[in-house]
Amino acid sequence: MRVAGVMSGTSLDGIDVAIVDIQGVRRTSTLALRTTPYPARVREALLGVLDAAAISRLNFRLGELYAQALQATCERSRVPIESVELIGCHGQTIYHEVGNTLQIGEAAVIAERTGIPVVSDFRPRDIAAGGRGAPLVPYVDYLLYRDRRLGRVALNIGGIANLTAIAARARPEQVIAFDTGPGNMVVDALVAEYTGGKQRFDRDGRIARQGSVNQGLLHELLRDRYYHSAPPKSAGREQYGAAFVKRLLETGLPLPELIATATALTAAAVAEGIERFVRPRMKVDELIVSGGGAHNAAMMGFLAALLPDLALAISSDFGVDVDGKEAIAFAVLAYETWRRRPANLPSATGARRAVVLGKISR
C-alpha cells in the first residue's frame, strides 16, 4: 500500500510529508519527502493560540495546508496523488498534558480535498486506555531497529527530544521509551531572539560553538524533577515554551552562551535519561539519531562526549531519512490503523493495553 504520512512537530518549522510504499511494516520504501514551511502568519497564530475561535479557525486552515502540502509533494516528486491510498496525519499539537491532548488540522478537509481516506487524531485512544498519548513513534522504532545482537537507542531530536530503547531480541513490552526533555525548541527560540527573527534555528550549531556552556546554569536546569522522574513521561511546549525561554533570558547571560547551554541541556538530558532509566535494564550498543538535531554538529558533539561508549549513527544510515522519520512513522501508524491492528506500546505510554489508534475520515 502507498501511504502518505503528514507530520508537523512542536518546533513549528513546517509540514513534513513522506510518501511511503509499505509491504508489511518491516518493508517500507520512501518515495518522496518534502517539508513545506508554515506561512509566517499561521506560525505566529499557532505560537499565540489563546481562544476557542482561533483554535477552530486554525483547525480548518491547517487541514487546507496539509492537503496542499501533500499535493505539492506529489507534484514535485512526480508521484501521482491517485496512487496514494491512505494518509496518516498527526496534526499540530497545541496542548498536551497527562490525560489531555489536542492536535488540530481537520482530517475531513484533507479527505475532501484529496479524495483519500485519512487516519488522524492518534493520541486520544491511548489516553482513553490510561496512557499519556505519547510517545507513539516507539512502536515504529521497534519495528525498524530491533536487532538480534545489539541494544539500540533511537533518539529523535525535534522540538522535544524522545528516545526508544530496544534491547537485543526485545519483546514489545520490554521497550523503554520517553521524552527526555527539550530538543531544538529552546535553542530555536533563543536563536530567533539573537538574530532578531532572521534565523529560526542554529544551522550546524554555529552559534552554539561561538559561545561557551555555562556549567552553573546547566547544573541548575538539570535539577528539574522531570529529568529524575521515571517513565512513562512526556514533555511539550508547556514545560519548554515561552516561560522557560524567558527564564533563561532573565539570567542576563550573552545569547551565544545561552544557546550553547541550551544545546548542551538537550544532550545532557538525553544522557541522563539513558544512564538513569535505560542502562540499569539493558545493554546499549548504538545511538541512532534523527530529527533536526542530527544536523547540529554542536549537539551531536555533546552527545558523543557524554556517551563515548556508544556507536553514534543517524537514521539515514538505516535507510530512514533524518528529516522525515516522524512523518514516515505516522504513515506506518496509519497503515496499522487501517488494518485494525494496535499500534501503541503500553510500556512507552503507560496505557493499560494495546489499542487501535486514530480516527478514519473517508
Overview of the molecule:
- The structure is a single chain.
- The chain is α/β, with parallel strands linked by helices.
- The protein folds into two domains: 2-133 and 324-361, Nucleotidyltransferase, domain 5 (2-Layer Sandwich); 138-318, ATPase, nucleotide binding domain (Nucleotidyltransferase, domain 5), CATH 3.30.420.
- Helices cover 39% and strands 21% of the residues.
- The protein contains 14 helices and twelve strands.
- It has helices at residues 40-47, 52-77, 107-114, 123-128, 138-145, 185-194, 206-210, 215-221, 237-240, 242-249, 255-278, 297-306, 325-338, 346-349; strands at residues 2-8, 15-22, 28-36, 86-97, 100-104, 118-120, 152-157, 160-166, 176-182, 286-290, 311-314, 359-361.
- Strands 1, 2, 3, 4, 5, 6 and 12 form a seven-stranded mixed β-sheet that branches. The protein has a five-stranded mixed β-sheet with strand order 9-8-7-10-11.
- Helix 11 (255-278) crosses helix 12.
